[in-house]
Write a structure and sequence with these properties.
Layout lengths: L2 H7 L3 H25 L4 H13 L12 E2 L5 H11 L1 H20 L11 H23 L8 H6 L1 H9 L2 H19 L12 H15 L12 H4 L5 H5 L4 H26 L9 H17 L6 E2 L1 H9 L6 H16 L9 H15 L2 H10 L1 H16 L2 H20 L2 E6 L6 E9 L4 H9 L7 E11 L1 H15 L7 E3 L2
Length: 490
């Protein structure tokens, strides 16, 4: 087949080929960094990136969205590996993929868009804070405490320990330099910025570490095949554990929500076909199922790679498939190249990524316009840091539901007293138990020696608790010899 006929079948091949190179260069350091931060072999991050390109990338859903290991799941994966071991991770990811396939088949993907944005942003903010705290220890070559609160509380002591060690200071300096390069990368000339910032920062850090012979830790290389572990029958038995099932649910909720919110964001970046949410959820499920079978990291759609894909001029899903091919070739032909990457540089990249997950501007904006939403965001983030990922998300969802119920139960009581005759009371809106104290306070303040006409025709909803309370109030009001309360319904 000649070039002209190939271009006839794939009219956007040139744009997609160029975009795939950019996405590959963006994904490479992030795949490795996320894996190392998750406490698994670096190659497993590449495996997930490859599957994200070759499996999820081929499926329908969101044509320009790119999937792979994400910083948003790093904390949860690290906790799962620490608690249950690397052997169980594949089973957890496999079960996550199967659940996503099932939800996609049941057409539940669209309902993830109903999750409060404040909860999702709070979830990412909590993840970002824990990720930053944990990677600051890695930058200094120190072991991080297990819980989020302990990570934050132990930072002052870690600073003192690092200041006493020449090796730790060199490691911190390299990590801090990596962050500085990432922050300043946008200000460099356009020709330089054709290289993704994360890749440029890692290359510079590697050159500095090697050139000056800095005593810093490097990525351990095991080889692609040696890192893949198929789940054992014993590992599948762990699914009977309540803790493992909770981890599966947390993976499913967070990975699905992050992927579908990312899809909505990517749709705003281009004018091409819109995302089919149920198909995209099934594509993510298929990818996670394969990742689970290979014992790799879970995947989500990643907004950084997806945005880079769109901005690089990608037109079809061929770009994300090709980026998976380049990751596979790198992992197969150049695995030893990973062994020269200093760990402080990867920690610096993840500190920068974690900071981008903390929506400071959004919190300020929400506080000015929607304080309830801002409260949900902050409480979700703090709960994740203070308790754990799964419980923190549940607390955020519960608070968001309670806030919505409170706002939906808006009720108004209008009292008209002409000084003679019956007092007229008009109740409108949604009368629920949440507003019951306010309703009763207003009704009990009416004169006891006057007849009352209570008009309920303006109510859209009257729950059982309110109905019972109104009946009891009516009986009490009539006990003093007053005429019975006249109630009018719609």
């Amino acid at each position: 087949m000649n070039t002209s006929s190939l271009l006839g079948k794939l009219p956007h091949l040139r744009q997609d080929f160029a975009a795939s190179i950019v996405v590959f260069l963006v994904a490479l350091p992030l795949c490795v960094g996320v894996a190392v931060a998750s406490g698994v072999p670096a190659e497993l991050g590449l495996v997930t990136g490859i599957v994200g390109g070759l499996v999820t990338g081929l499926m329908r859903g969101s044509s320009l969205q790119v999937s792979g290991p994400a910083a948003g799941l790093t904390v949860l994966v690290f906790e799962a590996v620490r608690e249950y071991g690397l052997a169980v991770l594949g089973v957890v990811v496999l079960a996550t993929g199967v659940l996503q396939l099932l939800m996609g088949a049941l057409k539940l993907g669209r309902y993830f868009r109903a999750i409060s944005v404040a909860v999702v942003e709070g979830m990412l903010a909590g993840i970002g804070l824990v990720l930053i705290a944990g990677q600051l220890y890695s930058m200094a070559g120190l072991k991080a405490p297990a819980s989020g609160l302990d990570k934050l509380a132990g930072l002052p002591e870690a600073v003192v320990d690092a200041a006493r060690s020449t090796e730790a200071l060199a490691s911190v300096g390299l990590g801090a330099g990596t962050i500085a390069v990432l922050v300043l990368w946008r200000r460099l000339p356009r020709r330089v910025r054709t290289v993704p910032g994360a890749l440029g920062a890692v290359v510079l850090a590697t050159l500095v570490a090697s050139g000056f012979g800095l005593p810093v830790a490097k990525v351990e290389v095991r080889g692609l095949v040696g890192s893949i572990r198929l789940p054992s029958l014993e590992a599948f038995g762990e699914l009977a554990s309540v803790g493992v099932l909770g981890t599966v649910l947390a993976f499913t909720l967070i990975a699905s929500a992050e992927s579908l919110f990312s899809a909505a964001a990517v749709d705003r970046l281009h004018d091409g076909p819109r995302t089919e949410y149920d198909r995209e959820l099934m594509a993510q499920g298929a990818g996670n199922t394969v990742c689970g079978l290979l014992g790799a990291l879970p995947m989500t759609a990643v907004i950084v790679r997806s945005a880079a894909n769109v901005q690089a001029g990608a037109r079809t899903k061929a770009s994300r498939v090709l980026h998976g091919v380049w990751l596979l070739l790198f992992a197969a032909l150049l695995p030893a190249a990973l062994g020269v990457i200093p760990l402080p540089a990867l920690a610096g990249i993840l500190v920068h990524a974690g900071w981008k997950l903390v929506p400071l501007r959004e919190v300020v904006s929400l506080w000015r316009e929607h304080r309830g939403e801002a409260l949900v965001l902050v409480v979700t983030a703090v709960s994740i840091v203070a308790v754990s990922m799964f419980e923190g998300v549940l607390i955020g969802l519960a608070l968001a539901i309670a806030k919505t119920a409170w706002e939906a139960s808006h009720v108004r009581l209008e009292v008209i007293d002409k000084g003679a005759g019956p007092v007229q009371a008009y109740l409108s809106g949604n009368a629920t138990f949440l507003r019951l104290p306010k309703i009763l306070d207003s009704l009990e303040a009416l004169p006891q020696d006057r007849p009352v006409e209570l008009d309920l025709s303006g109510l859209h909803h009257l729950d059982h608790a309110c109905r019972t309370a109104l009946e009891n109030w009516s009986a009490r009001h009539s006990e003093a010899g007053t005429e019975p309360v006249k109630v009018t319904t719609g």
